[in-house]
Structures are given as C-alpha cells and as structure tokens.
Amino acid sequence: MPDTTFSHSHVDAPEPNSVLAPGRHVLRGWVWPRTGGHFVDVRARIGQRIFPGVHGRPRADIAAHFKTGRPVALAEFNVTVELVPGRVDVVLEVLKLEGDWTEFQTVAYRVEGPGRATLAAPAPHQLRWHDFTRGLELILRTRRDRPGAAWQELADELAADLPQQHDLQQPPHPFIGHADEPSVVNANRFGLLLVVGYLFHTTDKIERLWATADLQTMEPLKLGRVTANLIPHFPQYPVAGVSGYEGYVYVPAQLPNPVAVRIYAQTSDGALQLVQVRTTRCHDSAIEKYPWAGATPAEFAQALAAWRWALKSRGLPLVEDDEFQSAVERLRINYLRPAPYPVTPRRSPVLPLLSDPSVRPPARIILATHNLNLEGAPLFLLDLARHLAANGARLTVVSPADGVLRSAFAECGASIVLVDVAPIFRAATDAAVREALVTLARDFLFGAADLVITNTFTAFWAVHAARAAGQRVLTYVHESTTPAAFYREHVAPAVVSAVEQALVLADAVSFTSEATRSHHAGPAQPVNAVLNHGWVDVRRIDTWLAAHPREALRARLGVRSGEQLVTNVGTVCDRKGQLSFVRAVALFNRRNPDLAAQTRFILLGGRDSPFDDLLNAVLADLALPNLTVHRETPDFLGYYAAADLTVCSSYEESSPRVVLEAMACGTPLLASSIPGICELVRSEIEASLVPPGHTTAWAEALARLLITPAISRKLATQARARIESEYAAEIVLPRHTAVARAVARGEFSS
Q1: Residues 520 and 553 in one domain
Q2: 599 and 712 assigned to the same domain
Q3: What CA–CA distance (Å, rounded) separates 660 from 89?
C-alpha cells in the first residue's frame, strides 16, 4: 500500500508497470487521508496535461479497515487518461479540503503495440441557454473591475476556465436521469449552488437523494417533483412522472475551480451509490451587486460576439433554440435597463459628528418595518423606537407582518398597524405597482405624522405612500446588496425599479456602514446619503450582566466545569453562514479531539424554515456530539456572557448587532472578514477575522483562540474599549435623533 505522510492509497487497475495499448484507459483505485485530513477530489497529470477524475465512490471495506465509524468510506476514484507510446508516468493528485492539489502516488506504464484502446472520447458538452447567458453575464459584470480589458480577452479567459468535461459521470443503468443545474458557469450565493434535475431507478425505489461538493457531508435533495413532460419519453416507467429533484449543495470558499458536484442515491436495500458527477465553474455572487459599467447596445453586441467566438474556438457547441434566443434577449434588456432616476452629480454623504443629547425628535413619527420578527433590522428599529419614545415622540409602527416584537414596540407606547403590501410585490408592470401603492396610501394615512421613518429597502412601499401624502421620509438601509441582486427574479422588474426609486424619493437615506452605502449611492445614484453607524446600549447590557452571574448563565446552558463554550448568534439562514460553520466545527473536532471533548458549540437562532431543515439534515449527517441548535429567543444576552468565544460567520452584513453586542459583553470574537464587520473591528486588535465560508481557516482559528485564551481576552478588552468610545448608545443615538429632526423640518441637506 503506497503511503505518504498524509495519505494511504492503492491503484487497483490497470496494475502499475503493466504494458498497455495506446489510447484512453480508466485508472481505478482508492485514496484515504490520515487522521485529521480530508480529501475532496482526485485527478491525474501526465506531463502538463490534466485529466479530471471521479472521486467519492462508496467503499465498505475501506471504512471497516480504517475504522471510520461509518458504513462506507467515500474513497474510490477513477480517472480516464490518454496514453501515448513509450514509458508513461501518471501522477495522481488529491485535492485537500484546504484547496491544494497534492501528489499522492505515481504509477508507471509501458505503452506499446499496434492496437489502440477502444474507449471512446466523450462528446463535448452542448451549451444550453443558461450555460451561455450566465457566462455572458459574468463577462459583462467583470468589465466593471477591468475597464481596460477587451471583450475578447475577458471571454477567452472565462472559456479557458470552464471545466474540461461538464458531466464526468452520467447516471449508470439501471438509473435514468439528467441534471439541469448546476450549469457550466454558476454564481455561488452564500456558498450555495442550485441543484435541479430528474432521476429514477428502472426496477427499484430511490429512498433518498443527496448532493455534495466537498465529501465532508451531504445536503439532502427533495425528490418527487412532478415531471409530466418525461412521461412520453419513458412510458414504460410510471415513476418518471414524479422523478424531479431540487435542492442546494454547499461549496466551501477555499475550493478551486472547477467544482465537482456529486449526487448520491440510496435504494430500498439501503445501498448508497454515486449516480452523477457534474463539474461547474463558480464565482462569487457579490459581483452581481454592482451596476453594469458603460452599458450600451454596441458594448453588449461586442461582448456577445466575443463570447460566441471564445466558445467556438474551443469546440464547445451551442444549442441555439427559442429558449436560447429568449434568454439572450432577457439579459440584453436587463443590461440596457435605464436607471430609475436621472444621472446627477454624486453627493457627498453627511457625517453627523456632534452628539447632543438635548436634541428632541419630531413629536409624531410613523415607523415602517418589513416585519416584527426577532431579527437584526427590526431590533435596530426597536432600539431607535425606545430612544425616540423616551425623548417624547409618539409612535405608530406599520408592518405587513406580525411578530414577537409587537409587544416590545407596544411597551414603547407605539400603536401597531398591520397593512397588506402583497399586491405591490405581486405587481407585474409599472402601472400595477402604482395602483397597488395608491391602494396602500388610501388604506393607511401616512401623512398623519411629522416624519415617516422606513427600515430596510424592503419597506420601499412606505416611502412611496408617504411621499404621495406630502410627507418627509428618513429611510434606513441595512442591505449590503442592491435591490436587483436581492430580489433577483422573485419579483417583476417594475417592483425592483420601485425599490430603487424609493431611495431617491426619500429625503435622506441613512447607512450604518460605508460597505452598505457603496451599493446604493454611486456616481449615478442621487441618494441623499447619511453615514451614521450603529450602536449598542452599553449601560443596559452592564446592568443586565450585573444581575446575571456568568456561572449561573453557563449552568443554565448546560456547560460543565472545565468546558469552553462557543456561541454563534443569528437567525438561521443562508446569509449567516451556519452551514460553513458546522463544517468547520466538524473539522475542528477531528483535528483536535482532546480540545473538542472540552468544548461546546451552540447555534442560537433556529426557526421553522426550509433552511433550518437543511441545516438540521447536515447536522444529522455530521453527528456532532458537542454542537446543538437553540431556537431564537429575546433572552439572547446570556449567549454572549456565558461564552468563551462568540462567532459571526456571516457572508454579508452591514453593521451587525451580534458583533456590537459581543464587544459590549466583553466576549472574545471570531468573525467573517467582510466589509460591514471590518468597519467595526480590526483584525487581531478587537477580533480575529477569517474569510467567510473558508471552513479550514475557521477550524484553525477556533483551535488557536481556544488553546490561547490570553489572546482572546486581550482582543475582548480592546473591543470593549472601542465600544465605549465609539458605539455606545448615548453617543450615537443623539446623532440619529438629530438627523430625524432635520429631515422633519426640511433642513436636511448634503
């Protein structure tokens, strides 16, 4: 058994040093990491040529031999290589979870003889409409960061980056199926790729279906979607009519392109089989947040021609059917969609530097929110409401959805009004949007106050209704993304335009971070911007901490003596990065077993949502004995105070409360190195910062901070000092009050 310092492996066939005919051959074998390691993929290299492999076939014997504790080990691989006459050294490389390709074994063959191997080369993948347009969109968006690059240069670079073979394995008989997603080019949104297709077994029942890109754990796919269109093609198999599947697969940020997505099926006998492998070229969806650069019909035509030529020159055929033409036209229209407001000179944001607690707010204020749930944005508004009410304002809260914060707003003396905004979001045209907004303005009198404050751009409807009533509006925006990227295709373009227009209609738009402002107040966006960061009520937290001893809090959470506690506080959702975090914990446990035995992890923020179901399924597969999920609760301060370390694993934030609250509680912090967080804390000064979704870096950071608590405590002390000097409520909230009063009086000006 050829061993290295990091692996065990064996090539089963063809046997090393065999004499083979020239042509294509399939190498089969297995590879398994030493303790603490993890392998994601396998490939072969002959000279400068790279041959992608299929890795992860289940092997019960490997699992038993290495005592993995699981029924099977995803350890078997096969690689199709092309051999030329002479001595050939095939270098086998493994992709480690860290994202590095590393040689683990070299096998030699003697290639000679007049005959040739009969294994046929695979036909090139025919690009469909979604393959083509997603690549074209990426090229169009890349121009923003590379304005000097020619379209052909950008197109050639992307074409060269596409996977050599899109489908490395099609479903083998007796399985029949096809994957529609992922396509050749895909945006990776918060680490997730869409997986869609159909699959059925000709004689057996598929009990469960999973997908994985990292072989660390599997995401369940929902099987059984109605696929009536398949019945005429497979009349002998009734199950074909309900064989559709869909779901998401997680891709760690450190994995290089192309990414291999594997689909596994479990049949009625309990056997697990690898049924399909599809490769895709991923990119971060953050590129979609920014407007197009220099969008003109001529530029679109040039980019389109360049992308066509780049694909043709590499022998990649296109299926140019009606769907193709429609998709290209939709992209062209989106690319050329005019701005919802006239281009005006950029306005410099107002920076409220003075903090005068004597400033009083307007007497009557309407607060509009997208819901009353226990989430960051409504909690931000609740804090603001308490401050405004304490300084004499009479409040009315308008929301399209009820929630647990209703009583908290009522305690401020606010009246709560629920409104129906669903017709606005369902509207398909500009006229329908206007009609729905008129109906809303008729049902609720937005003019019956001195000021309307809206919270998040999803409350855009209140801006339109208030301005129609002649009311002045202060809008808070927390989304570090654009309306178009946020809503994507979930609402009509007319609704997206209404959201964008609301930011211009508002008398002032307040951002709590430059990271957020940059998405909404560019050179061609005449937004009356205010930069006024978030806050935390340090006095209230200190009072609470004094009344709740730390040891009692730890006991209530079940933390034993000598254990360390790590908490991750935030609503369970894709943006918060819990899927990547639990993978990091699994890796941490394997690589630091003694430390893991003395460490507990708690995720706070569970709900009843599809993403909760996905997270729970992943946790069931990982079987982490030291990690639990707690449901969301208003009593969340104890999760900071009891912790030895708090983490914020988000992919996208503006000015996250989790970070501010952890700093105020004096709890060491490990967080994602994203713009909204980097404005609050500096790496290795107030917190440790790690790239979002980089599971191996997170596992290493967890170990480092838990092993060296002195480092953590120093960071926490410095973080608390920064909170007191820059983010305390008594310093920041008067600035927000001053902006509100200025807007209400018509005095606000950039």
Answers
A1: no
A2: yes
A3: 57
What backbone torsions phi and psi does residue 457 show, to the nearest 5 degrees?
-75, -10
Of 290, 310, 326, the last residue of a domain is 290
Taking Cα atoms as reference points, which of 350, 265, 717, 329 lies closest to residue 527?
350
The phi, psi pair for 38, rounded to 5°, reads -155, 130
Interatomic CA distance for residues 352 and 739, integer angstroms: 8
Whether residue 116 lies inside any domain: the answer is no
Q: What DSSP assignment string belongs to 383-432?
A: HHHHHHHHTT-EEEEEESS--TTHHHHHHTT-EEEE---HHHHH--SHHH
Q: Is residue 143 a part of any domain in this protein?
A: no
User: Is residue 260 one of the residues assigned to a domain?
Assistant: yes
Residues in the chain: 750
The angle that helices 151-161 and 129-142 make with each other, rounded to 10 degrees, is 130
Q: Are residues 102 and 178 in the same domain?
A: no
For 82, the domain range is 7-111
- φ/ψ (deg, to 5) at 707: -75, -30
281 plus 252 within the same structural domain: yes
Task: Provide the pLDDT for residue 510.
Answer: 93
Cβ neighbours for 303, distance < 8 A, ≥ 6 positions apart: 136, 139, 140, 143, 151, 154, 155
- Give 446's DSSP letter: T
Quote the tokens at residue 722: 């920064």
The Cα-based distances of 364 to 263, 393, 651 in angstroms read: 58, 6, 37
CA 392 to chain centre: 41
Residue 1: per-residue pLDDT = 58
The domain total for the chain is 4
- Final residue before a domain boundary, out of 266, 290, 314: 290
Does 316 map to a domain?
no
Residue pLDDT, tens place only, 154-175: 999 999 999 989 999 999 999 9
In three-state secondary structure terms, 321 is: coil
Secondary structure of residue 268 in the 3-state scheme: coil
Give the whole-angstrom CA distance, residue 553 versus residue 67.
39
Which candidate, 34, 26, 73, places its Cα nearest to that of 54?
Answer: 26
Does position 285 have pLDDT exceeding 80, yes or no?
Answer: yes
CA–chain centroid gap for 398, Å, is 30
pLDDT at residue number 522: 61
Q: What is the mean pLDDT of the chain?
A: 92
Question: Are both 185 and 262 inside the same structural domain?
Answer: yes
Over residues 309-359, the pLDDT tens digits come to 999 999 999 999 999 999 999 999 989 876 554 444 344 455 554 567 777
| Same domain (yes/no): 406, 449 | yes
Q: What is the tens place of the pLDDT at every residue in 304-322? A: 999 999 999 999 999 999 9
Do residues 710 and 571 both lie within one domain? yes
270-306 exposure pattern, b = at least 16 Cβ within 10 A, e = fewer:
eebbbbbbbbbbbbbbbebbbbbeebeeebbeebbeb
Q: Which residue type, as a one-letter code, is found at position 80? A: T
Cα–Cα distance for residue pair 461/733, rounded to 1 Å: 26
Spatial separation of the C-alpha atoms in residues 650 and 573, rounded to whole Å = 10
The CATH code of the domain that includes 383 is 3.40.50.2000
* 482/300: higher pLDDT: 300
- Max CA distance (Å), the chain: 95
3-state SS assignment for residue 510? strand
Q: 278 and 163 in contact (C-beta within 8 Å)? A: no
Element (H, E) at 692: none
